[in-house]
Amino acid sequence: MKKNRSPWIHQLNHDREHVALKEDASSDVVVVGAGIAGISTAFFILRNTDKAVIVAEKGKLAHGATGHNAGQIASYFERPFSELCEEFGIELAGAAQRDVESAWQLIDLMFTEAGLTIPLARFMGQAGFTTYDQIVRHLKDNVYRKKAGLRIEEFRIADSAPFAGSIPKEYEGFYTLVPQSEVLDLLQTDNRAYVASLSFQKGCLNSALFCQEIFQYLRKAYPDRFSLYEHTPISKIALHKGGAILDAGKATISAKKVVLCTNGFEGFTIINEGGLAVDAKFHHYVRGMVGYMSAYLEPMNKPPAAISYFPPGNFNAGDPFAEDPYFYLTRRPFDFMGNDHMNLISVGGPELSLSDRDAYDGDLEYPDAEKDKINAFVRSTYDTAPNKEIDYQFTWHGLMGYTPSGVRVVGEEPKNRSLVYNLGCNGVGILPSIYGAKRISDILAGKKPDRSIFDPRE
Description:
Distance between the termini: 44 Å
CATH architecture of the largest domain: 2-Layer Sandwich
Number of helices: 10
CATH superfamily of the largest domain: D-Amino Acid Oxidase, subunit A, domain 2
CATH topology of the largest domain: D-Amino Acid Oxidase, Chain A, domain 2
Largest sheet: 10 strands, mixed
Structural class: alpha/beta
Helix content: 25-40%
CATH class of the largest domain: Alpha Beta
Strand content: 25-35%
Mean pLDDT: 90
Number of strands: 19
């Protein structure tokens, strides 16, 4: 067993002062949760409105899912895009996909306005496939992307694949047959089980470090309108007409709006003046998945990368939304113990479901069984040098919030519009969190948003 040790938290300023709320306070808006969703929400509300914002965090800034993720930026949903089109309609699903992709520009805006200098890598990412079913499912997504007016993702299939000549006619023009060597080069593997690759924009970012630097900017840019209180758990949110009271133990916070940027497992109660319907609904909005990741160092002789690998078989069907459970790998420069000439190879994939009655303990040791799954993947697919022993410098796990629909919840609670949501990372949370933050700021600025698949439902 190893401790839960994240490379992203390793890079934070551990000497920073942490201020807890010790007396009653009031604000126009209280944001609950200081991860990437909460800090981004505070950024856009402060930027786009004249409202004062308090961020309340039960632990420390960016030490939850934001500090225990894979650090990969991706614009896809965990559910197949074709499924979203069939459930919500092509127009709404296409608009949602464009909304998520728009967050690339929002990240640029945040970097520019806050003067950030932390590493942000952007490149063409890859996904690798091993089976006919995987390939057809993703080709179907490409067909729906075209129907929705979205850019088609580049699909390459090995001409030596046993099914290369029997792919249905409806997918002609959505893929190219190439030598398998081209597929393997893109996937950076010599594992010949992989017979297809899909290329699309990805990136790498330490989202915990991003939150820390945005916080420092907000504190300087909006000293009279922004406060962050850490070690300030909220136990109860009492909603009334036109506002809310939050119980923070030793103190209370009154606000006109409360924005929940949480994973749904904080243990607080929401009391609406009309009853407990909001509380019951909220605690079924998000369920928990514990994701396991490991990382090791190698010489910095390759550029940043992010690759997903869909192996044959079902290695760990922890998530019912993931029809094809997969491993994901990122590579980026990483300064470790004064050595700034190393790449960090981060790998994740194994997940375990957590019911909403179970408590997640971030201090639990990392199970050897999960590390062994990752190690077996690395040795079979990425780092296949014989007799080489891999020294994992970091092994970590994090609690991710999944909504029942697999789609983030962003918007006002219909039963009481004093309550607003930006929650549900659904495994790929950086871009949706930032888009959700901008959408929340538009709502609080009085703009009526277009109907969206992100809207909270009755």
